[in-house]
Write a structure and sequence with these properties.
Number of strands: 0
Order of helices and strands: HHHHHHHHHH
Strand content: under 5%
Low-confidence stretches: none
Mean pLDDT: 75
Helix content: over 70%
Structural class: mainly alpha
Shape: globular
Distance between the termini: 34 Å
């Protein structure tokens, strides 16, 4: 399957004034999750650019430690995904609590990296970009263009890098199902 890169969104759309940001409804986790997934899919190339800049800076300052940290995180992520496909309890945890699953991956990576070397490289080079993505995706209100683009690209999203990651976390299918339900309601 060929990986397609989503288009780079305009920076004034990505980070406009404070009127397009709001705290999520912490009482409705499903709605918050939907906002995060939609924003991760819509702004994925922007997030990739920001993460690449931060990783490049940290990688330039400490290349060996960044390589070790990145390798550990990727291996731990792949290990957790593999285990979740083979163990029902982990599959349910990943499906119901994706944030807990990601936190478990990050904590496991943190402890392995602290055992192997420089924790600050992990904190600034790997965790900071992920945290910035999550905070932006949580706070950024979706606009009409975001909603329409996600609905139009719904089927092809699994071919994007973020689509693969969300699919591994079993978050994309729910989002697409919700979008399909919404489209059918609009048609009625």
């Amino acid at each position: 399957m060929e990986v397609q890169v989503a288009p780079l969104r305009a920076w004034d759309d990505f980070f406009p004034g404070s009127d397009r940001f709001a705290l999520p409804d912490l009482k409705d986790i499903s709605k918050w999750n939907n906002r995060v997934v939609s924003n991760l899919l819509y702004y994925q190339t922007n997030y990739l650019m920001v993460a690449a800049a931060l990783v490049s800076i940290v990688g330039f300052l400490s290349p060996l430690n960044m390589l070790i940290g990145s390798t550990v995180v990727v291996l731990v992520f792949l290990g957790f995904v593999w285990m979740s496909h083979n163990k029902d309890i982990l599959r349910k945890l990943k499906k119901q609590y994706p944030t807990t699953f990601v936190v478990a991956i990050m904590l496991s990576s943190y402890f392995l990296i602290s055992y192997l070397g420089d924790v600050m490289v992990f904190m600034f080079g790997i965790t900071l970009p992920l945290l910035l993505m999550f905070v932006h995706a949580s706070l950024r209100l979706r606009n009409i263009q975001n909603k329409l683009q996600n609905k139009m690209e719904g089927i092809g999203l699994k071919k994007t890098p973020m689509g693969f990651i969300l699919d591994a976390l079993e978050q994309q299918e729910d989002s697409i199902n919700k979008l399909a339900d919404y489209i059918s309601k609009v048609k009625e």
